[in-house]
Amino acid sequence: MPPADSPNAFTSISAKALTFAAYASFVPIGIATVLLGPMLPILSARWSMNYSQAGRLFPVQYVASTLAVALSGVVVSRWGFRFAIKAGLVLMSAGVGLLLAGPKVLGIVCIGAYGAGLGLAVPAANLLVAEVNPEGRSSKLNLLNFCWSAGAVACPILVAAAAKSHKFPLFLAAVAGFALLVAIGIAVMPSSIVEPTATRDGGRAPAIPWKHGVMWILGALFFLYVGVENGFGGWVASFAKSLELPPALALMTPSFFHAALMLGRWLAPLLLRAIDEIRLAQAALLVACTGMAGLVLSHGLRGVVLSACLAGLGLSCVYPITISLLSREFGPASSRIGSVMFFLSNIGGGLMPWMVGVSSNHFGTLKAGLAVPLIGCAAMYGLYLREWKAAEPELAG
């Protein structure tokens, strides 16, 4: 074991501290990312919106997030990963805290504000963890997204509790305060904790290989994954409500989806010790397709819960593995290419839930709309059938 003051030990300490900071940030980020889904029935009633109008709120969040993602590469290269995460958390805190403080126009601005905060923080945290953990990268990214899932699981339960007690402003203020506390914690990290300086050392940044076929396949996977997850998770509460389930139970149904995501991300590092990450993603996507098809055919609470759990379990490892593939395929260029990938993911994240709303409104039923994420999930499975570069053995640590 190297001495505590050796360069290797110092690097290890920095990597662990930065990874922990990213983990902490992803809990409030998980809450904010999925907040719109469980609150959609409440906002629809408060602002008198139909399916199509409610579906437009998702593009507000994700267009703002996409614009922020486009800026995140510049922000990270100039001021570092931690600055991008802190700035994103502060902006997210302001948007969530003021969501119900005024009329519909202010609420829409706030949705855009916390969406922009997510656009700054999410790519920075993912790329930071991938860069400082070259060994066991998929495992660490699954644990990072496990923390996201913990926030996402808590969100619908907290929304349901706030609805029952009529304390939405208090709930939103608590979430905003939580995000702000994490930002302060990251700000006061010791100056001895240093970040990677891949694009801040005055060297020439690696060119983006636009003609590389794998880049476009990964771009499609990023686009589809976030679209599918948001298209399914963002509308499951509204679908449960359309089946005339008790309102509190309907608002909590996304928690089953996100709890399964969390469970799958906890199990993934263990499975990756024995299963190749591509094979795991392929099998997981088949499970997700089964769950999404089951939801379309559901008629009661049992079917909704089982389908949501299968969909969440199946999707759980796909996004972290896709991020790992980005780093594995492109190496030093992955940080720069990552801004393009997260840009595409945010377009998908806003577009597909909107397509669910438009399709549902056109056909008069959410069952038709929920076929959209099912088709997207099947498309991801097809993309994962290609031959990928051989992976290095996973080292969980």
Plain-language structure description:
This protein is 78% helix and 0% strand. With 397 residues, it is mostly helical. Helix 11 packs parallel to helix 13. The longest helix is centred in the C-terminal third of the chain and has 30 residues, at 334-363. The protein is globular. The protein starts with 6 loop residues before the first helix and ends in a 14-residue tail after the last helix. 54% of the residues are buried.
CATH topology assignment: Growth Hormone, Chain: A
Sheet with the most strands?
none
Shape: globular
What's the number of extended β-strand segments?
A: 0
| Order of SSEs | HHHHHHHHHHHHHHHHH
Strand percentage, roughly?
A: under 5%
Number of domains: 1
Structural class given helices, strands, pairing? mainly alpha
> What is the tally of helical segments?
17
CATH class value: Mainly Alpha
Helix fraction bin? over 70%
Distance between the termini: 15 Å
CATH level-four homologous superfamily name: MFS general substrate transporter like domains
Task: Give the second-level CATH assignment, the architecture.
Answer: Up-down Bundle
Which stretches are poorly predicted, pLDDT < 50 over at least 5 residues?
Answer: 1-10, 198-203, 393-397
